[in-house]
Design brief:
- The longest helix is centred in the N-terminal third of the chain and has 13 residues.
- The protein has a single domain, classed as Winged helix-like DNA-binding domain superfamily/Winged helix DNA-binding domain (Arc Repressor Mutant, subunit A, Orthogonal Bundle).
- The chain is flat.
- Helices cover 51% and strands 7% of the residues.
- With 107 residues, the chain is mostly helical.
- It starts with a helix and ends with a helix.
- It has a two-stranded antiparallel sheet with strand order 1-2.
């Protein structure tokens, strides 16, 4: 037991560098969930300005750096894509679709 705690202690001595949380851009979990809800409910691509407007309308405004951090996190995890007309939520693929993609015919 002592070896385990010593080993874990060494690994935990230095905190990791944060990927998405930055000074001035550290959104709360509730803000992340509100942005996710907006993106999921949007019937067409939505701009960053429109996202900020909906958040403000709901009484949960945020700053642009925090919104950008949320969108960067979603984008890096394959949950949102940004095109010329705005942002689109990418629904999770079903296991059947993933199997077809893996084993299907390639062009």
């Amino acid at each position: 037991m002592h070896t385990y705690s010593t080993h874990m202690g060494q690994r935990l001595m230095k905190e990791p560098a944060l990927e998405y949380a930055k000074s001035g851009a550290n959104p709360s979990l509730s803000k992340i969930e509100y942005v996710r809800a907006i993106l999921q409910r949007a019937e067409e691509p939505i701009s960053r300005n429109a996202l900020l407007a909906v958040l403000a309308k709901w009484g949960h405004s945020t700053n642009r750096p925090s919104l950008n951090a949320i969108l960067e996190f979603f984008g890096d995890n394959g949950m949102v894509v940004e095109g010329s007309k705005g942002l689109i939520w990418v629904p999770e693929a079903s296991p059947r679709l993933l199997e077809v993609i893996r084993t299907g015919y390639r062009l």
